[in-house]
Amino acid sequence: MRHYPESMNRLIRSFCKLPGIGEKSAERLAMYLLQAPDQEVETLARNISELKKQVNICSTCFSLSDAETCRICRDPSRDARLICVVESPADMVAIEKSGGFKGVYHILQGLLSPMDGIGPSDLRIAELVKRVAAGNTREIIIATATNIEGEATATYIMNQMKPYHTHIKVTRIASGVPMGGELKYIDQVTLKKAMEARYDF
Ligand SMILES: [Zn+2]
């Protein structure tokens, strides 16, 4: 890195902080941008600086959104009585890509992990209970990973749903999802089958 001017080193160091980018890739990216048309570089810089300003969290499901509520929550063709509970926006995207799910989502923004000091109040579980308590929900599909944290989170949510068991169904996706499997790494066909083959929890 000492061979480059300091402004370039700063950019390389910034790239190195990105997931999956090592020093070699960072150098290649910086070199690419140096030679790219001004407009392309300016667009990239603008997109990066506006990301944090423009991307909001949906006030209903807590997924990423460019408005107060996200596109899925606003879509009248989606069945709002069917809520799929996932760990992260990436998991929601994985289920959307697998196709076939016509309900809505609830993004927990993490999983219970006492070892890391993550408890129920760090997740959007109270908000989920509030959504269910407001009525209309017919089924909660718990689509968290099948690892220890995912199972613990699923069990905790199931217990929270007990007062509502008379009018809602709580199901868990599993079939086809390998033990320890994280949703976002599962192929679309397997994920679609897992959603369809959910069982009463
Ligand atoms: Zn939403």
Share of helix among residues?
40-55%
**CATH hierarchy, class of the largest domain:** Alpha Beta
State the end-to-end CA separation. 55 Å
Whole-number total of structural domains: 2
Listed once per kind, the bound small molecules are: zinc ion
Numbering strands along the chain, what is their spatial order in the largest sheet?
4-3-5-6-7
How would you portray this structure in words?
The protein has 201 residues and is of the alpha/beta class. The protein folds into 2 domains: 6-54, Orthogonal Bundle (Helicase, Ruva Protein, domain 3), CATH 1.10.8.420; 64-200, Dna Topoisomerase Vi A Subunit, Chain: A, domain 2, CATH 3.40.1360.10. Helices cover 43% and strands 13% of the residues. It has helices spanning 6-16, 23-35, 38-54, 71-74, 89-98, 125-133, 148-160, 188-196; strands at residues 56-57, 64-65, 79-86, 103-107, 139-142, 169-172, 199-200. The protein has a 5-stranded mixed sheet with strand order 4-3-5-6-7. A two-stranded antiparallel ribbon has the order 1-2. Helix 5 (89-98) links the parallel strand 3 and strand 4. Helix 1 crosses helix 2 (23-35). The chain is elongated. The termini are far apart. The relative contact order is 0.10. It binds zinc ion (ZN). Zinc ion is lined by residues 58, 60-61, 63, 69-70, 72-73.
